[in-house]
């Protein structure tokens, strides 16, 4: 039974992630006064890339993105099976690190710049991701997602500050402006797409699929804050995920990209204050 | 096997020694009026991601190597489209001391889009024709994994 579940997660998560990306592209185009590509465009792109030639730069170069994909799939499975959120977060970080190593492996100046920017982004968002799991543990006395989402009260009631902080760093995770320094969806000429510069064909398709999984992971984090023991709350949680995605798309289209100093400073100040104040207040009332 | 390349042709645009007329028309294709992203076209800026190389303007002594590099870095299957009369024959610049002529002097050009400057409609038409050539090329392309 659990094996069937795992297989379903591995197949369905990228389908959902791809559809979300397709919706993003259509909505973004409409916001810019364009008609936009078909909803299934991300899938067409990936299937095309799978059929193209993959140019190999060196032996290790491709290895890293495949390892990164495996770790990200592992994270998705842990989270959707209701496993340990702390383990999930660390495995996800490992996946991101391997992706960065892939950028360093090619020795191309463009992917080096991309890798460095990706590391700076990780530095900006990782503390908040950890604080999310700390906050959730504080409320529900468990790191297990099954236990967190089966409590009586939704975590958002106790952790509005932590949730706001999560929304802030979600912009990094989903690679949206103003924090899409390392690899943007839109700026296709922006330092020639950072880490992906030297990847082509199948390897580029793998990077795209990894991002679909990451999109799903990001929304599972949002979902956890709203789901409770009652069945109705799960619909609310999914609705909130939709609203958050729309918000991210609006932010993406309304803001220009910031410099890394600004990204790092604003992320640490905003998430630090929001999460710290929230946790301090919580320690008095709970 | 179904060919997806016609659903998502990614473009790389290079300015040889164009007067910028054709370049502006190429970029006009991406604006809300023509919006080629409807057909999945993305203007990539990275030869390794691109399927179609659009070259505007003629080739001169200094960019022969650059044009060759860009072509060699593109993954198979790939096509080259020469945009405008300068890219086809050298056009008004043909007699200049540094101009060696059209793009076909250095690269195997698959398609010529005429015009000075080429109209956006003509460029879109050219890209659509280029996609047909891409599909044919995919059948015989070297597939290296």
Structural description of this entry:
The complex is a heterodimer of chains A (286) and B (145). Chain A has 286 residues and is mostly helical. Chain A has one domain (2-285). In chain A, 74% of the residues lie in helices and 0% in strands. Chain A has helices at residues 2-31, 41-51, 59-80, 85-105, 109-140, 145-148, 155-158, 160-173, 201-224, 231-254, 260-285. Chain A is globular and about 55 Å long. Chain B is α/β, with parallel strands linked by helices. Chain B has a single domain, classed as Rossmann fold. Chain B contains 4 helices and 7 strands. In chain B, strand 1, helix 1 and strand 2 form a beta-alpha-beta unit. Classes of the chains: A mainly alpha (286), B alpha/beta (145). Chain A binds chain B through residues 25, 29, 32-38, 41, 44-45, 47-48, 51-56, 188-189, 192-193, 196-202, 204, and chain B through 1-5, 7-8, 32, 35, 37-40, 42-46, 48-49, 51, 73, 75-77, 138, 141-145.
């Amino acid at each position: 039974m659990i094996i069937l579940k795992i297989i379903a997660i591995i197949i369905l998560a990228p389908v959902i992630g791809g559809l979300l990306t397709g919706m993003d592209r259509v909505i973004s185009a409409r916001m810019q006064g364009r008609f936009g590509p078909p909803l299934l465009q991300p899938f067409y792109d990936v299937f095309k890339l799978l059929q193209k030639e993959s140019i190999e730069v060196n032996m290790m170069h491709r290895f890293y993105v495949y390892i990164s994909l495996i770790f990200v799939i592992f994270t998705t499975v842990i989270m959707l099976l209701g496993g340990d959120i702390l383990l999930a977060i660390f495995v996800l970080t490992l996946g991101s690190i391997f992706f960065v190593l892939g950028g360093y492996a090619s020795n191309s100046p463009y992917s080096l710049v991309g890798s460095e920017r990706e590391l700076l982004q990780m530095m900006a968002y990782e503390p908040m991701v950890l604080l999310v799991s700390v906050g959730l543990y504080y409320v529900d006395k468990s790191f297990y997602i099954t236990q967190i989402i089966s409590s009586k009260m939704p975590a958002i009631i106790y952790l509005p500050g932590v949730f706001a902080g999560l929304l802030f760093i979600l912009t990094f995770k989903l690679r949206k402006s103003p924090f899409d320094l390392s690899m943007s969806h839109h700026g296709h000429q922006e330092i020639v797409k950072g880490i992906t510069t030297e990847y082509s064909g199948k390897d580029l398709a793998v990077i795209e699929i990894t991002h679909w999984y990451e999109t799903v992971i990001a929304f599972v984090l949002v979902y956890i804050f709203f789901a409770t023991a009652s069945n109705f709350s799960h619909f609310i949680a999914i609705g909130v995920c939709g609203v958050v995605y729309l918000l991210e798309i609006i932010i993406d289209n309304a803001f220009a990209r910031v410099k890394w100093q600004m990204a790092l400073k604003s992320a640490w100040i905003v998430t630090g204050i929001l999460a710290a104040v929230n946790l301090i207040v919580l320690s008095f009332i709970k | 096997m179904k060919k997806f390349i016609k659903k998502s042709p990614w473009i790389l645009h290079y300015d040889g020694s164009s007067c910028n007329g054709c370049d502006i028309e190429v970029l006009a294709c991406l604006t809300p009026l023509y919006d080629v992203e409807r057909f999945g076209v993305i203007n990539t800026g990275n030869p390794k991601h691109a399927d179609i190389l659009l070259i505007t303007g003629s080739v001169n002594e200094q960019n022969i190597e650059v044009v060759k590099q860009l072509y060699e870095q593109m993954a198979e299957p790939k096509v080259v489209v020469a945009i405008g009369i300068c890219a086809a024959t050298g056009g008004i610049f043909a007699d200049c001391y540094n101009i060696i002529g059209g793009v076909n002097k250095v690269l195997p050009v698959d398609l010529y889009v005429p015009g000075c400057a080429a109209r956006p409609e003509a460029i879109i038409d050219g890209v659509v024709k280029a996609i047909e050539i891409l599909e044919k090329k995919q059948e015989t392309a070297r597939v290296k994994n």
